[in-house]
Specification:
This protein is of the alpha+beta class. Helix content is 22%, strand content 37%. The protein contains nine helices and 19 strands. A hairpin with a 5-residue loop joins strand 14 and strand 15. It is globular. Belongs to the peptidase U62 family. It comes from Caulobacter mirabilis.
Length: 443
Amino acid sequence: MDENQLHEAVAAALKAGADAAEAVFAERQSLAIGVREGALEEVEREESRDLGLRVFVGKRQATVSGSDISAEGRCKLIERAVAMARLAPEDPYAGLAPKDRLAKGPLPDLDLYDDAEPSAESLEDQAREAEAAARAIEGVTNSDGGSAAWSTSSWRMVTSDGFYGPHCASAFSLSASAVAGEGSGMERGGEGRSTRHGADLPGAAEIGAEAGRRAVQRLNARKIASTTAPVIFENRLATSLIGPLIGAISGPAIARGTSFLKDRLGQPLFAKGVNITDDPHRVRGLGSSPFDDEGVANRKTALIEDGVLTTWLLNVASAAQLGLETTGHASRGLAGAPGVAPSNLTVEPGDRDLAGLMADAGDGLLITSMFGPSLNGNTGDWSVGCSGFWFEKGEVAYPVTEITVAGNLIDIYGRLVIGSDLELRGASNSPSLLVDSLAIAGR
């Protein structure tokens, strides 16, 4: 669908009885190849084109979506949306974004689209090379496979207030997973990367070799006794510790009063010198976009500045409920009202690398894998299953497994020491993070 057809859909919704309307067209293509033990195992191809419509009748709203974008299909979708809105309960905070907050051209060029479409054969070659490199590492005994994928997506949005915004992006990914050891002593390790441009991906052999090394490093993992000790969260997964912060400062959680940080705005939450930013305009960023999903102009935002919590993450509805203005963090699919999400979240680096953090801590736990997190959203009490390495006198001693770490996030955040080993691997990135003391449950 082009811009004119989206404008026509919005106009048709108004003619059918809507007071305001918003139309979104999303188109996606993807190709994914998987290999295992050197043989082709999976080929997936996807092509989709969908229309989403959100309409308002007074303070009542409804959203619908469908893949039939013919003239007849659009008419049915519009009729259904308006009929649903008339029956919906009133929402005093529902509405389109204020006109003065809408993004205006020219939109920033974020270099998110690579027009080079790889062939299935080239993706298969990459996946094979990654898997072969993983299997070549001494100590690797089997493989969970290698995979390579490519996708493109485009998003066009029109509102009855006159906004039109196009947005397109590509993605290239490559991964491998290896198995080391035998029987009950088997351990797995993996490595994967995703980028907007194919040229930015690390080499397949590099990815595969890292997957193999990480599996072998896990061999002969021990169970340890319960204790209290310093804990370091490796940079690859450290944002998992920051994830609950994002949920706790989201406008909907604050408006509902269900956040453990609901009374902490403008107060110190981390140590002085800690900064966490969100930047939707990072060039080639995996979370980048020129406007948010309500058409609002977005910008780089300091969430934590010198340790202080500076803002909530707000869309139009949650901002209205709190008597504030949207921060440009609306996020939505084609169905359902917008929610809230960050774009490119970054914990800004400190001045100590991982070796320096381990040296500072002396003896403790380096976490390299996490699973099954549990959070009490009202209190901040948090626990997570994990595995990793025990270190002594600042040096890795042996791998450990089947352990749980726990604590209260307000206390944890206040004592975090930020490492310097930041790598921009995804939409959320952090250097390694040290907590000087955490409860560790073992055998």
